[in-house]
Amino acid sequence: MKYIESLKNPQVKQWKKLLTKKERQKTNSYLVEGFHLVEEALKFKEDIIELMYSEEIEIPQEWDIHGLQVTKITSEISKAISDTETAQGIFAVCQMKNTSVNELNGKSFLLLDAVQDPGNIGTMIRTADAAGLNAVVLGEGTVDAYNPKIIRSAQGSHFHINILTGHLDEWINKLQQEQIPVYGTALENGIPFKQVQPEDSFALMVGNEGNGVSKHLLELTKQNLYIPIHGQAESLNVAVAAGILMYYLKK
């Protein structure tokens, strides 16, 4: 086990860089923090590159850390690499999983078009996981799935469900080639969602909080759906709407 106590240590600088999208993409790795998320990561030990913990805490005895690279750090380092106001002092560097449109595997998908709010994205990843979908695909303009706020909001679902990126028009074409219907979400040329039947295979596409799904993508779908509003609210939050539709469409 290593022990690092200097904030100037190159390894500490590298961990801090993982809070940026550029470094995550460069190294194909990301940082998780907190007891719950690290515990979830340990269920998929092959994804863990390194585990770090503050000298002020103890690793739970029931955790299986055998074979992992473990580094003890000071509380100052813990605060420096944390993205939260109150660091719990436990971290893991994990490897991203790479899957492309050419490695399409699964029957049910959530497609995100230019969604901007990390909380919404994390919630939708978590809900897709809970609803039993196979993958979430983040299209252009959507916030990086490994943003620390998204990691926290998803509460460990990054380890349970495939999280992919790419051009959504390519994904839609590939899904349709595999006879998987793609449903957009829009009032214009849309129908109430209960007019379609739940299916084993489907893809649901939701869009930007302010502008919705891009018009050119809506033109590629099998059908566009909307959720009727029975009260006085102007619209539903995108994560709430996605949750309703995923649970309805999933047979």
UniProtKB/TrEMBL annotation:
Keywords: Methyltransferase, Transferase. GO terms for biological process: methylation; RNA processing. The keyword Transferase applies. CDD domains: SpoU-like_rRNA-MTase. GO terms for cellular component: cytoplasm. GO terms for molecular function: RNA binding; RNA methyltransferase activity. Residues 31-100 form the RNA 2-O ribose methyltransferase substrate binding domain. The keyword Transit peptide does not apply. Belongs to the class IV-like SAM-binding methyltransferase superfamily. RNA methyltransferase TrmH family. PANTHER family: RRNA METHYLTRANSFERASE 3 (PTHR43191), RRNA METHYLTRANSFERASE 3, MITOCHONDRIAL (PTHR43191:SF2). This is RNA 2-O ribose methyltransferase substrate binding domain-containing protein.
